[in-house]
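Q: Structure tokens for this one, please.
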Amino acid sequence: MAGARAADAGVSAPESVVCALIEDIFGALGFTGPERAVLTETLLEASRAGYHSHGVMRIPTFAEDTQAGIIVPAVMPKVVHETDAAVMIDGRRCLGPVSAVFAVDRAVAKARAAGIGCAAVRRGNDIARLGAYVGAPAREGLLTLILVNDAGGGACVAPFGSAAPFLSTNPLACGIPRAPGEPPLVIDISTSVVALGKIRMAANRGEAVPEGWLIDRAGRATTEPAGFFDAPRSASLLPLGGAEDGHKGFLLSLIVEAFAGALAGAGMSRGNEKEDQGNGLFVLAADPQALGRGRDFAQAMEAFVAGLEALPAAEGTTGVRLPGARAGRGPGGPYPIDGPTWARIRAILDRLSLDADYAVTPASGGE
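A: Here is the predicted structure, written as tokens:
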């Protein structure tokens, strides 16, 4: 495994190696071929789009959670309650991306039949990047919304007005269709000022974070990410909007809790800082055709987009950038893997007695 013993500073891995790592690790852990395919596509989609915190660097998290018994291999989600427009799903602690695909597929099928459809998942696990799941339905003409909480765990965000962590990052994503052939708008945001993965990436690199991301237990601003990973945490994320306007992110987070926590039955935040409690998930899909707005909706969206793109650029910018238009790597990579993440992957390979020669390149700095 000479290539896998590359410098602890981090490595760069081509897509073929990332695929081999996922195939070998998760095959050895007992996941089926279809499960491994879903996980591979989910993580690569995130890294290709430049969202490394939700992409390849999640390999060790999924593997470690499996070894800890949090994720159960070779298990499929199960429908436990269903109506014409809604479906309740027991994730059965299966691989998170598998339950997310399962839920979105069923919400979409309901929307095709009834005009609107929703699905909720309890006993689910981490689904990685939400935006990965809303693009395909939007390309097929369906408005799609996903809301996710941490099923009552993962408290890391201080509610507006507090210095103590109580909420998780509670992200949401929306796919908005446009005219046929045009790329959909894909919105994917956390209700915290930044995603947790970016704090972890900074800590792994030994870097400070920008001021305005974290506060300590006294409510003072801090740029040191290490305290965020203390047990208990000595630093918390701020809600979206920061110290001045964080009430907006706080209120959005409450909406996510109501749908993904209470309605899905997955559990609501209660200040439990323990990670790996899973994900609660709510999906809503709506077909503009059901309201007689199919063609009119597309025309309205195109006029709206054209207006945005015609706006003059503000000084120091290249103009309005539409969500979903972020430039990233094409298929093939390579993908950066920081030193601590690579060390965790190497430890997993050793525990599973996987000694293939994974051809990675030592990091040259930067990424």
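A few notes: The mean pLDDT is 93. Residues 125 and 311 are 42 Å apart (CA to CA).
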